[in-house]
Amino acid sequence: MKVALFVPCYVDAFFPEVGVATLELLEKLGVEVAYPLDQTCCGQPMGNSGCRADAAATEALFVRNFKGYEYVVSPSGSCTHHVRDHLTSIEQTDEVRKVRSSCYELVEFVHDVLNVRAFPWAEFPHVVGLHNGCASLRALGTASMSEIGGRAFSKPMDLLRAVRGISFVSPKRPDECCGFGGTFSVFEEPVSARMGYDKVSDHHDAGAEYIVSADMSCLMHQKGCAERLDLPVKFIHIAQILNGSRE
Amino acid sequence: MKRIDHAEASSGFIKAADHLEFHDKRLWDLRKKRDREAESMPEWQDLRELASAIKEHTLSHLADYLLEFERNAIANGAQVHWATDAADHNQVVYDILKSRGARTLVKAKSMLTDECEMRPFLEKRGIEVMETDLGERIQQLDDEPPSHIVVPAVHKLRGDVARVFADTIGTDPAKDDPHYLAESQRQHTRPVFLRADAGMTGANFAVAETGSVVVCTNEGNADLSVHLPDLYIACIGIEKIVPRIEHLGVFVRLLSRSALGSPITQLTSHFRAPREGTEMHIVLVDNGRSERLGMADFWYSLKCIRCGACMNTCPVYRRSGGLSYGATYSGPIGVIIDPTFNLRKYSALPFASTLNGSCTHVCPVKINIHEQIYKWREIIAARHQLPFVKQEAMQVAGKVLSNPKLYRIAVEAAGSGIERLPRFMMYNRLNAWGRQREVPSAPTATFRQWYIANRGKKDEKGK
């Protein structure tokens, strides 16, 4: 299996430990992982701002970096969503379409492709609240959403339940957006920050020591909010827990 | 025309903490009630699918169904008028009132008449117009537009209503008991109902097969408005048509459950023909709808049945209030409709969204709201309607992120966390990130630097 690791720009710059955990976890699961060194970004910041012309060169670079792999795996739901559903600023050649359809978010790759449910090295003796980023939840469909109802399922929970010592709490509004939203976080700063405050308070009130998520961008925003509110909540990417971090 | 600044307006809304908390909680409660109703019906998703299909069918045969509706309405004894735009609509209404010597109009809720700015038009010409829906009446007395399409005064606390009523209809300013306030309003409006020359409603649905106008309400005010005066005018957007009476059941089952989480509205009134000796007029209004119907990416928005479920679920709407959108239609549905009226004025609204997608999944007629928001952003950027700073920021981001060398210089440069934030995040409104949030601290190395140090360059090309 030829797998490439895509480490989103903000993870590369601010949370290298999440990239490391993703790489090590995949290696522990027996996957041979390549990391193309010229990678930068998927184009989402420009794409979500409507700027197709500005997104095109970055999207083309993404395709050049990641063509020829069976799978592209990324510890980010929203980047995966962009590549899969919105990487449309460049001509849709067979090569582009192939790269787009081979891109997986880490949880769905482990859950659906590797079909792994055991992480014998993982132990996390803490109370955690799970945050599903909106792209993971509603675009990639990694969990059932309260808007639709029906049979409840959660791929991230399927994986986390295999971790020794971990326990879970649920906030009152588990599916409510945390207000990051990419450039929304700066251009709509008042609402963004308020949503973030409400989100971290909801988890804190539920008794969460940690907020865990497959989306580090949501956590970057929530962490900034919790620190400003002086809430004793910590943040960790799901890759770190599954890779055996005990914090 | 000046661009509406949603972010700026929302900032004022958020500062009033009591109001914000009530607003958020009240609307979230509606969303939860909606969930309970939806979950109690195993066929909910099938109903949504069916409703969507009926609307898409109707919209793609709209001219035929409109003509069928007109024929049947005329056969019932109603008089049918066509209005191409807001000005036309207002003039038609005024001409009807004037020719019958009507001076006082009592009206039920209608977003369409707000859209057409009918009230000020008529008032300037000497017509007294009274809103009879309680929330609309509160907003009228406070000289504010409705902030929500179903619950127009939801942004007000009871104390605000007590103040408005004390100032306008003479209630005791110290008393903010809801029953007292509602009863006072009732006593104040009843005499106007009795002396009104004309009544008006909007329409939730117009049935082509029967020529009837269907209005769903909870207060009985629409029925009083229709039945007391001798002249009744129904103003209807052309997208409100449903083909057959049998289709109505699908929408009635979805409407109030989606809107308020109640199985049905207190009243579902079918106004079909004028009473003996009275007149019934129907004004069918286009006002941009035909043009929207021709937009490949956006015509689905005409499926909307104005339930407000997308607003109730929207985390941005709940925390910024309807008035912050500066438009008749606010929240997710407003964000995709408003730019069709004025692209420049409403060009910031599609950015008042995190693209979280909750709206799309509660919509009872399956409008792909968040995908349309995304599409509007592309149109706004392509037509150069982005604010200059954002345009600049995206150009810089596009250049840096498409060039591995420049990118590395940006993220590997030594310096503080602020300097190391990706430029697209920091370029505009300097340090907007840090106003209410801590900035992430900079690690000693990027992932790429760690990778090269720990894994070497052996699999650089992944081989």
Poorly predicted runs of chain B are 414-418
Oligomer: heterodimer
Structural domain tally of chain B: 3
* Largest beta-sheet characterization of chain B: 6 strands, parallel
Mean pLDDT of chain A: 97
Order of helices and strands of chain A: EHHEHHEHHEHEHHEHHEHEH
What is the approximate shape of chain A?
Answer: globular
Strand content of chain B: 5-15%
Average pLDDT metric of chain B: 94
**Helix percentage range of chain A:** 40-55%
Report on the structure:
- The complex is a heterodimer of chains A (247) and B (463).
- The mean pLDDT of chain A is 97.
- In chain A, the strands form two sheets. Chain A has a four-stranded parallel β-sheet with strand order 2-1-3-4, with helices on both faces. Chain A has a four-stranded parallel β-sheet with strand order 6-5-7-8.
- Chain A has 247 residues and is an alpha/beta fold.
- Chain A has 13 helices and eight strands.
- In chain B, strand 5 and strand 6 (212-217) form a beta hairpin.
- Chain B is globular, with a radius of gyration of 26 Å.
- Chain B has 463 residues and is α/β, with parallel strands linked by helices.
- Chain B has three domains: 1-37 and 317-386, no CATH class; 41-153 and 192-287, Rossmann fold; 388-462, no CATH class.
- Residues 414-418 of chain B have low confidence and may be disordered.
- In chain B, helix 2 (17-39) packs across helix 12 and helix 3 crosses helix 12 (245-260).
- In chain B, the strands form two sheets. In chain B, strands 1-10-7-4-2-3 form a six-stranded parallel β-sheet, with helices on both faces. Chain B has a four-stranded mixed β-sheet with strand order 8-5-6-9.
- The chains are: A alpha/beta (247), B alpha/beta (463).
- At the A-B interface, helix 1, helix 2, helix 3, helix 4 and helix 8 of A face helix 1, helix 2, helix 17, helix 18 and helix 19 of B.
